[in-house]
Amino acid sequence: MTTDKAEELLAEVKLRRTRQRVDILTALINAKAPVNQAQIMESLGKSSPNKVTIYRVLESLIETGIVHQAYIQDRCAYYELGHNCTAQQCHPHFTCISCKETRCMKDVELPMAKSSDGFVIKHQQVRLEGLCPNCSQAVEGSTGNQAGTTNG
Ligand SMILES: [Zn+2]
Ligand SMILES: [Zn+2]
Ligand SMILES: [Zn+2]
Prior knowledge:
Blueprint: H1 4-12, H2 19-30, E1 35-36, H3 37-44, H4 51-64, E2 67-73, E3 76-81, E4 93-96, E5 102-104, E6 127-130, H5 133-142
Parallel strand pairs: 4-6
Antiparallel strand pairs: 1-3, 2-3, 4-5
Helix pairs in contact: 1-2, 2-4
The structure holds zinc ion (ZN) (3 copies).
């Protein structure tokens, strides 16, 4: 596993390079979807730091903005790199209410929320819920559509 990218990111934000930061950041870089603490631990295997250290490292990475807390599911926080978000808003995350899978919607941009009530909105993080393409097809199929000519 190559750690170049992680070291590069740490240098960019002038965060001291420690083995744990590099390892955890590399785990996030290699992950295809946001991961939680347990998944980070699992991907690092035997060399993984303990739970508390992982949280501490994540916190330092979040402070610099290279890592974002993407969402919370089942009381578990999921983390990802911040490079697919803007300073003002994170890309939304979509959770399917049927298969419970959560996905990043990197191509979706929502208008910033506005308040005329004295609230100054600095950051927006939106969570969407519904049916993923797989599940919405399954629902259509099972309810029997008008032209019931398919399926033997
Ligand atoms: Zn984000
Ligand atoms: Zn689904
Ligand atoms: Zn995401």
